[in-house]
């Protein structure tokens, strides 16, 4: 993000800064944008996938970084339809773009000479490599599978959102009786080639289509594995697809991997970035462009946060048990209390998540938090309208409401209510964010 930590502030300096923050300001609105999914490229992906898979299979060391430890304002551009969204995930931030690309018949027939392919496809391959080279992500799954082969040996496994098939390959190598890999995008064709190239065609069956529309050749499966997590954990709402598969095919006593996910919140100082990217629009060469500023605040940022920017404790918002939860449990309102650990300013709140595999011999998983090794999920930054001077021991209290968009359930609506009654700042506000 190119941010620089400003360091601790004295109460006197906070008092100077907070002259405009005394008393509750007028209620403002904010919203969010993003885009996500898990698959959808072609040919050149085979080599990239195979390279990373081979590297991963050669290394058995762990890279888990998990410590045991209603009406929303519209964003410019309007809502997308479900059809627009299904194959357009993560493209907003350039992550997981493999699913956003679908070849038409005309383009597919002449792709060698297509300028569209040469530009778009190469970008997709680059994104695919970024996902596979996310060592925390890929090797955690690999280690879970290889080091807990008792979960997979002679078992029927379902891979939901298989992408290039890397998880299916891991499962097959760990001794699975059969793996059914469901992938809805064009990447399914490449996954079939990858499976064949690695000699697992007799163990892995790739099925192209949506999970909700697929007829499995078997009535039940023993294990469901998926890398369903999106930005802010829930963006794209692929979790509901996993729950659908669980309820339809998983045997009693079957295993879902991962089976636990937790969402956290903390607060950061981020003056330099906010001034450069958001407040910039207040005066551009002497002209008022604050209408753009309003849109900029409405869109939380997916980026890496320096742990030195953290001002408060980290608050657990929600823990989900994927093996038992109902689809509606992904909508929730959670209170938070963020207590300042030093004299400082709060410019934004930051959300991140952990996932756990509790059925293993020992706890395994990873965190996407600022104090852990960086993943491609990074963190989700929600900028506040106010700059909040806060003294050590004072608390920013509030609640966060999370729910899917009514028109497009793969989008996420966030309502943030917060208040601070501090020595130098008294404020109460509601902001809205939308990830789409």
From TrEMBL:
> What molecular function does GO assign, one term?
protein-arginine omega-N asymmetric methyltransferase activity
Subcellular location, in the record's words?
A: Nucleus
Catalytic EC class: transferase
Keyword Transferase found: yes
InterPro entries per UniProt = Arg_MeTrfase (IPR025799), Methyltransf_25 (IPR041698), PRMT_dom (IPR055135), SAM-dependent_MTases_sf (IPR029063)
UniProt xrefs under PROSITE patterns? SAM_MT_PRMT (PS51678)
Q: What does this protein do?
A: Arginine methyltransferase that methylates (mono and asymmetric dimethylation) the guanidino nitrogens of arginyl residues present in target proteins.
Its cellular-component GO annotations read: nucleus
Protein name as catalogued = Protein arginine N-methyltransferase 1
What reaction does this catalyse? L-arginyl-[protein] + S-adenosyl-L-methionine = N(omega)-methyl-L-arginyl-[protein] + S-adenosyl-L-homocysteine + H(+); L-arginyl-[protein] + 2 S-adenosyl-L-methionine = N(omega),N(omega)-dimethyl-L-arginyl-[protein] + 2 S-adenosyl-L-homocysteine + 2 H(+)
Biased composition regions of type Low complexity, renumbered to the chain: 9-24, 31-47
Q: Matching SUPFAM superfamilies, A to Z? A: S-adenosyl-L-methionine-dependent methyltransferases
UniProt feature, compositional bias: Acidic residues: 48-57
Where in the numbering of this chain does the Methyltransferase domain appear? 157-241
């Amino acid at each position: 993000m190119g941010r620089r930590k400003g360091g601790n502030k004295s109460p006197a300096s906070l008092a100077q800064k907070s002259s405009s923050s005394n008393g509750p300001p007028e209620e403002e609105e904010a919203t969010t944008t993003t885009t996500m999914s898990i698959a959808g490229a072609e040919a050149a992906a085979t080599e990239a996938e195979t390279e990373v898979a081979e590297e991963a299979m050669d290394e058995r060391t762990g890279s888990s970084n998990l410590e045991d430890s209603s009406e929303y304002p519209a964003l410019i551009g309007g809502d997308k339809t479900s059809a627009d969204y299904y194959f357009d995930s993560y493209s907003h931030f350039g992550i997981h773009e493999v699913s956003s690309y679908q070849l038409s018949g005309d383009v597919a027939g002449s792709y060698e000479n297509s300028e569209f392919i040469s530009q778009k496809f190469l970008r997709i391959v680059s994104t695919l490599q970024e996902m596979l080279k996310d060592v925390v992500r890929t090797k955690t799954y690999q280690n879970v599978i290889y080091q807990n082969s008792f979960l997979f040996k002679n078992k029927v496994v379902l891979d939901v959102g298989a992408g290039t098939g890397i998880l299916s390959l891991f499962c097959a190598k760990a001794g699975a009786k059969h793996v059914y890999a469901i992938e809805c995008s064009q990447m399914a064709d490449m996954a079939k080639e990858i499976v064949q190239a690695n000699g697992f065609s007799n163990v892995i069956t790739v099925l192209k289509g949506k999970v909700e529309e697929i007829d499995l050749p078997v009535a039940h499966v023993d294990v469901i594995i998926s890398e369903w997590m999106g930005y802010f954990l829930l963006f794209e709402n692929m979790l509901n697809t996993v729950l659908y598969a669980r309820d339809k095919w998983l045997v009693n006593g079957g295993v879902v991997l991962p089976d636990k996910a937790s969402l956290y919140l903390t607060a950061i100082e981020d003056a330099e970035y906010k001034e450069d990217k958001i407040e910039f629009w207040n005066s551009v060469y002497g002209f008022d462009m604050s209408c753009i500023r309003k849109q900029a605040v409405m869109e939380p940022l997916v980026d890496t946060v320096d742990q030195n920017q953290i001002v408060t404790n980290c608050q657990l918002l929600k823990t989900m048990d994927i093996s038992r939860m109902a689809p509606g449990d992904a909508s929730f309102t959670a209170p938070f209390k963020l207590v300042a650990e030093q004299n400082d300013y709060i410019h934004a709140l930051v959300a991140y998540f952990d996932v756990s595999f509790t059925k293993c011999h020992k706890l395994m998983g990873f965190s996407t938090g600022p104090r852990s090794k960086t993943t491609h999920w990074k963190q989700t930054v929600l900028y506040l309208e106010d700059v909040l001077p806060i003294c050590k021991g004072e608390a920013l209290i509030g609640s966060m409401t999370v729910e899917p968009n009514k028109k497009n359930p793969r989008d996420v609506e966030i309502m943030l209510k917060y208040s601070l009654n501090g020595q130098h700042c008294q404020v109460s506000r509601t902001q809205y964010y939308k990830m789409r």
